[in-house]
Structure formats: structure tokens, C-alpha cells
Amino acid sequence: MSKLKYQTLTGMHDVLPEDQVYFKRIQKAVESVSNYYSFEKIETPILEIAEVFQKAVGDDTDIVGKEMYTFRTKGGDIVSLRPEGTAAVMRSYLEHGMHNLPQPVKLWYIGPFFRYERPQAGRFRQFHQFGFEAIGEQNPSIDSQIIQMSYGVLKELGFKNLTIEVNSIGDSECRPYFKKILASYFKSRKSSLCQDCQRRLKENPLRILDCKEEKCQTVKAGAPQIIDHLCENCHSHFKQVLEFLDELQLPYVLNPYLVRGLDYYTKTVFEIISVQGGPASGGETAENSQSVGTLIGGGRYDNLAKTLGGRDTAGCGSAAGIERIANLMKAREMKTGPKQEDAKIFLAQLGQLAKRKSMKLFEEFREAKIPVAESFSKDSLKTQLRNANKLGIKWVLIFGQKEALEDFITLRDMDTGTQKEIKLDKVVAEMKAKIKK
Ligand code: HAM
């Protein structure tokens, strides 16, 4: 077959009906965790002034430097499709004077994000994230709560063998000094670094620690670790975060090379990955599972508010890639929970008057919150019964010509083939009682 002229853009995809069940399940888990921890929902626009992300995430980062969809509007503003949520949520916090509310202000969000990335497994140009942000509190208990919640959502979805990698990348007091130590270490080994890292050496030597290139691994392995160079304040903060994580019995490991690809982070950073190779994983190898990348990433961002021109305000949060989670759930055939909407009743009709009356009856069922399946576009009773059969539905209500004229309906039990007549004004109540049994 020749290729269709119009297809989705590279890196973009339709979320088809068969995948909605995963998205729905994930959103439900996020909502339930958010409610429990008293996080409230926020929605920010998909477009923001480009500077919000340039300042917050950093001009030198891949996200801003290479991946933002940025353009000039008819009015002359330079705007970007949001590549992430934290900068926009902080912009909103500052714009709406949320510092006047009891702190921390705890917010969650879900929606589409855009990054012009090189297409590869687990990386899309339009993808969905959910995220948590707790703004206005420095206390390390918040960091551990964000980690716990992020972990909690994945647990609730049925993920096993999750690993939480944590690190502290210091703050404006200790990081500049560490960057110098790191730069001098890498400078003397410059020729052993990949092209990108040679550039990173000038811009931000911390980014080299994040490099996945084979070439850089040996040099990285001998690099000084920031954990040994934290100032008093960052050291004590990190120690407390780890104590909370211990108390919560969360499966974390220290990763001294975890730096994250966004400039706004201070102190705690973390990522959650799922490595699963056992029989319960649906046969997936650890390697395959790794290839989708990190499921959730986050950390503390105590300087972000000031960078955006606001007052000094601490913050901590995380965000997750919904496609990555959904694709793993699908590959591993993980449960999506009972489909609440599954109909137990099928409404079949025969003839024009019956069809009209069936549509009305269908609305009565909807008001009573009883799910009912139908094939109103089909005229043949045989086709409709076949559809009911395919759906595995036990109760079929048949609205024929005689029924429509005499205001009753025939109920057929598909398991036994037995039939009975029910008065039209009694049918909703009677069926309600039947499906409750
Ligand atoms: P991030 O690490 O850039 O952090 O993204 C978070 C998660 O979004 C990733 O772990 C991944 O699952 C998913 N993700 C990112 N890019 C893509 C992509 N191109 N395709 C599919 N999934 C993707 C942030 O965005 C921060 N705002 C997180 C945060 C919130 N930090 C503090 N608060």
C-alpha cells in the first residue's frame, strides 16, 4: 500500500482508544495520590513567553538550546510550546501571589509537553507528563514526600522492582567551587571526552557527569564527587532527606553522577527507573526496560523563583513521562483495573419507532448511571445480537415494533435464552436491581 500523504509528524502520535485505558488508569492513580497528600490541580497554558523557560531551565541545556518549539506570534511576542511544567507553575505561583497562601503550596498537573528531540525509544516530540510541585518550603521532609508520592503512583499502578536514584548537587554556595574542581579534572583528560563533552567542559562541566557516551565512562568513573564537596547546609539537608527515605523504607541508591538536565536544580535530585527482567515482567529483559529511560525525575529548585524575578522561594517537585509508563504497562501486560464503564446490558431495537424510543430509554439509563451498550446505527436484530454476544453481555433488552406500540420491552437472558416482558416505565429500576445481584 502506498504511504498516506498525511500522517502524524515525526515524534508525535495519536493516543488511540485502545491506549486511553492506560492514560486513564495513570491519571486516576495520580489523582488519588494527589488527593491523599492534599495537592491541588493547576493548569497552565501550553504557550508561555520563551524567556520563562530560557531563564528557568537554562539557555545552555539541551531542552532550551536544541529542543524548544519557539516562534514569534503575530503580535511580536517570542513564545514557546512548554517543554516542561515546573517553570510555568512557578511563574503562576509568582503571578498570583501564592506566597500569601499557607506554605508550602502543593500543586499537581497533567498534560501535553513538547520537545524537538531526536526520535528514539521513549522520546517523543509531543508527550504527556504528570507532575507534583511543592512551593514555599525548604524542609527536607518535602523532598522525601515528593519522592514518596512519585514512587507511590508507580506502586499503585503495579510496578515492581523500582529503583530510586538520588543525589545532591549542592547550591550556589558549594556548587561553583565544585564545578572548578570538576573542570580542572576533565581539562587534563579533555582528549578522552566525546565532542559534546568537550563543549560541555566550557559551558557546564557538571553535564559531563550525565553523559551516556561509551567514550566518557572511564573518565567519569574517576571524577570527583559532589557529595564530598557539599557545604554544611547542603550536607545536612541531604542527610535528613536520606534519613526520611530510610524511615519510609524506599528502595533508593546514591548515584553521585546524577545531575539532571535542567539548570534550576539545587540540593536534592532524583530519578525513578523500572528495571524488570523476572517472569512477572511479561518476559521483558532489563535491557529493553532500560531503553525507555527514566519514568520520573525531579528535585529541589530553591533559586528558581528568584531567577524568574520573584522573591526568594524554595520549591521541590517531580514529573513523569506518561507514554513511558503506559508503554511499559502495555508491554508487561499490567492490569489497568476493572473497566467501570463496562456495560452489562445491551439495548437492541427493530423499526423506526422503536429506534427513537430506544434512544430516549438509553438516556434514562444514562441518568440512572447504568452503563448500556447499543448499536443504534444497525437495523438488523441479528447483527445487534451478534454485537451483544461479542461484548459478552448477558442481558439484552429488545425493543421491537410491537413493544414500541404497547410500551413494554423484551428482556432476553443470553446465557439461558429465556425471555420476559417488562413494562417500559419499570425497566430502568428492574435492570438496576438485576445488575446489582
Ligand atoms: P524531565 O526529566 O525533563 O524533568 O522530565 C520528566 C520525565 O518526563 C522524564 O523522566 C520522562 O519520563 C518524561 N519525558 C521527558 N522528555 C520526554 C520525551 N521527549 N518523551 C517522552 N517522555 C519524556 C522535568 O520535566 C522537570 N520539570 C521535573 C520536575 C518537576 N522537577 C521538579 N519538578
From TrEMBL:
Name the residues that bind L-histidine: E84, G85, T86, R115, Q129, E133, R260, Y264, Y265
Q: What GO MF terms are annotated?
A: ATP binding; histidine-tRNA ligase activity
Under the subunit heading, UniProt states:
Homodimer.
EC number in record:
6.1.1.21
Which gene holds the coding sequence for this protein?
hisS
- Which keywords accompany this UniProt record? Aminoacyl-tRNA synthetase, ATP-binding, Cytoplasm, Ligase, Nucleotide-binding, Protein biosynthesis
* Family named by the database record: Belongs to the class-II aminoacyl-tRNA synthetase family.
Which chemical reaction does it catalyze? tRNA(His) + L-histidine + ATP = L-histidyl-tRNA(His) + AMP + diphosphate + H(+)
Compartments it resides in: Cytoplasm
Q: What is this protein called?
A: Histidine--tRNA ligase
Q: From what organism does this protein derive?
A: Candidatus Staskawiczbacteria bacterium RIFOXYB1_FULL_37_44
